[in-house]
Amino acid sequence: MLFKAHFFTFIFCRRLLRNDRCYNLCGSPHRKGSATFFLSQIPQDALRQSMFPLAGLTKEFVKKMAAEAGLHHVLKKKESMGICFIGERNFESFILEYLEPKPGNFVSVEDGAVMGSHKGWFTLTLGQRARIGGLKDPWFVVDKDVVTGDVFVAPTTNHPALFRDTLKTDRFHWVTLDPPLELARSQMMECHFRFIHQMPLVPCSVTLNMDGSVWISLSQPVRALTPGQFAVLYKGDECLGSGKIVQLGPSEFTLQKGRERLVAKSGPTGRPGLGIS
Fold it and tell me: What is the reported pLDDT for 252?
């Protein structure tokens, strides 16, 4: 198998508990364009048979080689910025070519007021601007209820309802088949996390569950964590693997409201039962 990709290499290693060969997926995750993110679900059998001919070369150097080889038509081609295999087109229109509209309401996460309507919760993703007619200021998608069809929105792009610091994955895919020894021994491990290709790495603590899923606690709240996307973990230059996000912890907004209710119950003295109603 041959991958024409940039900025990643593989390293042969001997697994401690088996006699068969194992490969680690490595390559600086800090470098722009690193493809390890997209290979975080690669099976070990496929990785073992893979070759990466451009490993260690920058995109600029490869373009220089292409120019020297006379491949100017390649250099003039614009890089795709749209969704893979879809291109730069309206995502809502594309989805509605295949799915029936399921109209629902835009609901304010702050007071429950209905702000407008949409054509289907599946046409929207967390963090994006909600197109709500008649509103002067932008509102942003912060949560979705797939049962009722309600899409919850907030009035600023950095609203605390968009920020969370804990998440759970389904059964995690480890590139080397088994969890790292540190995690297997103690069920906890420190490493780094991202769920978007070029987002900065975030320090995190990982807890291994009995069913192979993991809880990930981030060192700081991250904007628009989204169920269905993949949580990718790194240890140094190694991409450990990934798991699909299936559950999110409470948002900063929810935690803030909880603290406010607790203070209200405690009263001005901070002692329960002495508040002024």
Answer: 98
Burial (0-12, 13-18, 19+ Cβ within 10 Å), 262: exposed
Q: Whole-model pTM?
A: 0.84
Please count the CA atoms within 13 angstroms of the CA of 37 that sit on its side-chain side.
20
Torsions phi, psi of 210, nearest 5? -60, -30
CATH, residue 123: 2.30.30.280
- Which of 94, 10, 78, 92 minimizes the C-alpha distance to 44? 10
The verdict on 143 and 220 lying in the same domain is no
Average pLDDT of the segment spanning 266-273: 63
Picking from 123, 157, 191, the residue at the C-terminal end of a domain is 157
- Give exposure, 263-273, as e/b (b: 16+ Cβ within 10 Å): eeeeeeeeeee
CA 199 – CA 125 distance, rounded (Å): 17
Provide the domain limits for residue 191.
163-252
Answer yes or no: are the C-beta atoms of 104 and 118 closer than 8 Å: yes
pLDDT at 4: 43
Q: How far apart are CA 162 and CA 252, in angstroms?
A: 8
274: pLDDT strictly greater than 50 = no
- Over residues 220-237, the pLDDT tens digits come to 999 999 999 999 999 998
Tell me which of 117, 139, 157 is where a domain ends: 157
pLDDT for 15: 39
